Amino acid sequence: MLKRKKTSSVWRELESEKCNWINITSPDKAEVQRLGRRFPLFETLDLLEALPPLQRPKVVDRNNYLFLVLLFPVYNRETKQIEPHEIDFFITNETLVTIHDSSLLPVNDVFDSCAATAESKHLCLSGTPMTLLIEVLRALLASQSPMLVHIGHDIDEVEKNIFDARRKGTILEILRIKTNIASYRKAIGGHKNIIQHMVHMAEHRFPSDKLHLFMEHLIDQTVEFWDLLDTYKDTIDAIHSSHQTIIEARLNDVMRVLTMISVIIFPLNFIAAFFAMPSSRMPIIHSPNGVWIVSGLMALVTGVLVYYFVKKKWV
Description:
It is built from 10 helices and 6 strands; from the N terminus they run E-E-H-H-E-E-E-E-H-H-H-H-H-H-H-H.
């Protein structure tokens, strides 16, 4: 399993009469214990799941809160790989708690935007924790579009290069893209069902006609991403298959050339070995022009074989 990067923990809060937001970045055990003391109603198992390693996406309806776990893909510029990163939500009637590592920048961006001014703070916290959750999820999903565009560009680039025999590393690029698509699909695969379940669970806590509309919009975005990933998967699979076919065709060409060379060399070796036998009665070789006669015979055999291969269009 992937482990989160070791960075210092940051606890930040926004408070109002209607709604509170606690945003914890890169939590350690001490911060989780602090959260448990602050909210005794949070179950220990849920608190521990906020720590590494990654958990599976899920939503759980507890007596006094909802516990939501989601994975979002993040592009690692160093390794050029997409890695899933976890974010945990504790949703009570008055408070939203978000726990994540420092890689999920959109969450901190939303928090910074809310904390920028008194007016923005009032606007962010004027609704319920569920409406605040929707804004966080909307920002996280919006951050996925550039990554999908980047994957599309990578596919277009590798598609241009599969016919370039001089370019090295094409197969590694194809495999990297396939791995990234698989990691992306693994991260967001359960979003649609989990968000739908969360809407049903939240209806009695946060009754609102707009809740379904907002959540349906988020679900539609997830479905669009999934459909695009399906297209990318089919495309890169087709490119991989084409590349393999090209490699096999080139390998067959090489093997055909090597086979023809072997066929030509075999009779030449036989002729050379035959006339090299130590015998006083060996014809031609004791003649003053014997070397040239044997060389001419070898040249004749070579010419006949090459003519045959050309006529058969093997070269």
